[in-house]
Amino acid sequence: MATATVDVAAPDRDRPSERPGLRDTLLTVPRGVAQVEFQPNYWTGLLFVIALFVGGWQFGVFGLLGTVVATVTAYLLGVPWNRVSIGLEGFNGTLVGVALVLYLDVRWMTAALVIGAAVAAAVVGSALNTALTPYNLPGLTAPFCIVTLIMVIGAPSYDRVWAEHANTAAPSATDPGTAMSWHDFWHGAFNGIGQVFFQDTWYVGLIFLAGLAVSSRLVAATALVSSVIGLLVGWWLGVPAADLGAGLYGYNSVLTGIALTGTFLALSRAGVIYAVIGAATAAALTAGISNLFTVVGGHTLTWPFVLVAWVFLAAVPNFSRLRRAG
Amino acid sequence: MATATVDVAAPDRDRPSERPGLRDTLLTVPRGVAQVEFQPNYWTGLLFVIALFVGGWQFGVFGLLGTVVATVTAYLLGVPWNRVSIGLEGFNGTLVGVALVLYLDVRWMTAALVIGAAVAAAVVGSALNTALTPYNLPGLTAPFCIVTLIMVIGAPSYDRVWAEHANTAAPSATDPGTAMSWHDFWHGAFNGIGQVFFQDTWYVGLIFLAGLAVSSRLVAATALVSSVIGLLVGWWLGVPAADLGAGLYGYNSVLTGIALTGTFLALSRAGVIYAVIGAATAAALTAGISNLFTVVGGHTLTWPFVLVAWVFLAAVPNFSRLRRAG
Amino acid sequence: MATATVDVAAPDRDRPSERPGLRDTLLTVPRGVAQVEFQPNYWTGLLFVIALFVGGWQFGVFGLLGTVVATVTAYLLGVPWNRVSIGLEGFNGTLVGVALVLYLDVRWMTAALVIGAAVAAAVVGSALNTALTPYNLPGLTAPFCIVTLIMVIGAPSYDRVWAEHANTAAPSATDPGTAMSWHDFWHGAFNGIGQVFFQDTWYVGLIFLAGLAVSSRLVAATALVSSVIGLLVGWWLGVPAADLGAGLYGYNSVLTGIALTGTFLALSRAGVIYAVIGAATAAALTAGISNLFTVVGGHTLTWPFVLVAWVFLAAVPNFSRLRRAG
């Protein structure tokens, strides 16, 4: 007899669902946006939304659309309210919305696809939850990565999807050369924070940084330091300066750094060294993932972060010098 | 604390093997063919075999060869008879046989490869059983997908395998255009059922549908509706009409629809909506998977179904509105 | 009975770390090299190191560098000494060092990358340990395969990494034709053993074989027979003779054969047949994996072995005729 116990949600099933109030319900949206970077703080989410609108109205609108659809889907399917209310069911929808409008342009068809993709992201998120719970790992932005990757790979085959797709070549395509200027460096440091949401304007990155600082000054400092770590790793390996300036080697380091500094890994001296190695690894991994997906028309997204964070967190139980947080 | 127990087969080992009778033994073959669509009914399997022979003698012969080899392999290795006898060890062999004769043509070498691939599919199936049991997920047609995909990717490097391979370009390669005719529509609806076994003649699809109806009228109705759902999703996205007419956007929806309607998911109003979303997702995923594998010379096979069904079933424990069947 | 409990490291954490002596510490290095082929015997490791230096000084130096860095990393992070001391944390570092100096040439940058890759391999190894423990599966050379694959895929994008990369085309690129000579055959048999460490000189393979014989004559015999099995499968499928002679169809069979003959699978008549099927499967899989990775600039490495061994071992609990070793 095949006996196995992964009884992931039994307690939630039988617990009477609490009746959420209007204010709490509305706040799931900014909390969802904030959870992209693991902050359950609605002020952080509000600043993130402002940053998206400063980056372009379409990023704000489609990001909110994705957040709402993913959250509502999870709620309707019966995900426990204590998980929905802190925004854990929304953030992959946010990223799906922002990414699809970037890659497929502002069109009604894109809005329809964002709705479909956000529903899919909610289901993928719950499936990952089942798969990862035995290992005590978080799903991170993997649902967004999975759904968006497969959609952009398939998109060129769909006549009504791909008619007027945006140009998304890396900056180095038109501006090669590996000599990094001071301008590249400080722009890259802020853009590394903005690129978590696909934004490449330095002051948009600054608003995101402010959003993080509202939640925790440690997190904000970690984000900035991690962005610089990623940038320096890329520079050392010989990445084109234009890509460094656009923050393309920073954003995965930012997310990895935050994840491994107090969020999912307990703070300690060894833990900080481990987080630095993780942030550097996420940057070093970027070109490999990018080349892998470019062949099939995919995009890097936050895959390097997801893979590095999963590996670095899954390894912790074997390392007596490190402990998981929470 | 993350505790999980995988105690996969201990009781089976020590249970004395029941002595199967001749009739029961022979019936494992049609039952195996029927299990491609989750039906443990040998009359269904018999109609499926007839459909294969109507589609072409080689599909019938190689499909039966694969079924027998996979079943015998599992039996010889010691898989419990209660699992072998209901055909659960045969159906991946059926599909391996049909697919390889389609992609590698009728030759003695292909027959040898079907034997090897069916053995491999039996082992992969048991490995998946071990991996998926903790999550209460079925292996579905994944063993077939894994073995066949890697074989067709490798085939061009083998001088004795690839000498006279068949042409398997999509119908749209010679017949582009997205304007769907009535002829495309109704052919596509039946071909979506036939394409589960790689058949693209409408009346072959009809025989498969009859086979399903013998087992359960609900399953047959679900198959037809799901095929139409997949076709309409493809049409809405702008898929070439010739591919829709060939059923290429239907067969993954057919399998997903059946899997999520009473087979592995309990029937309920929410469940049916969930199954419709799943069937639509399987169709929408098709181009992404297809583009991904075409780059390396692979084929779509039933990968979209396998991936969507796993994700949609793995998510269920987190959704209080849905329950697993059985 | 296959029972595994995921309670991943609690006991190790609280156990006081034993103080390793100098001799034991130094011997972790040759033990690490020997563990590439599952032997915890330092004499075997010493002969392997000699074989690497005979193959080229750079393979010896970079292989030792990788072994030391991976072992030290695991020790510093707090992996229990009883695991470190038998070399289980070193062997992926060995392979990383040998592979990177082959693909990226002898440069200081390559040495720096080997250090980074060996650290990453140690972390990936522990993560795999967590993921595979519930299934009672070993990590094998997967950490090496994962880290090296992603690095060689990314390398061309890094200006300072890829400047003078080595030519690593298959021998058949300049020497096509499938007619195998006696010279190809016996060279291939020994090279199949040497290619586990990327060596293609027959007497280097012979030294590796001697190293195995020091640990166990059964293992050495298994290696040689498996190498011939792989070679014959490749020849039967129509592989170019030059690739067969270079051992490219042997090394995955060698590792698979050893893994399934007494190492992770208990010796028995059914077990030996199973191991032969496994060794043949690893060879048959080689072209598929190779074609898959070549598209993105990757290399086959020992992926066929890792995948076949995992599948064949994971399947065992469902097969009453087979039992896991240990």
Automatic annotation (TrEMBL), chains A, B, C:
Transmembrane segments: 46-77, 110-128, 140-158, 189-211, 218-237, 249-267, 272-295, 301-320
Bias (Basic and acidic residues): 10-21
Organism superkingdom: Bacteria
Primary localisation category: membrane
Keywords noted in UniProt: Cell membrane, Membrane, Transmembrane, Transmembrane helix
Topology of the protein relative to the lipid bilayer: Multi-pass membrane protein
Residue ranges, annotated region (Disordered): 1-21
Transmembrane recorded as keyword: yes
Location(s) in or outside the cell: Cell membrane
Pfam families: UT
InterPro entries according to UniProt: Ammonium/urea_transptr, Urea_transporter
Presence of keyword Cell membrane: yes
Family assignment from sequence similarity: Belongs to the urea transporter family.
Name of the molecule in the record: Urea transporter
Species whose genome carries this gene: Actinomadura graeca
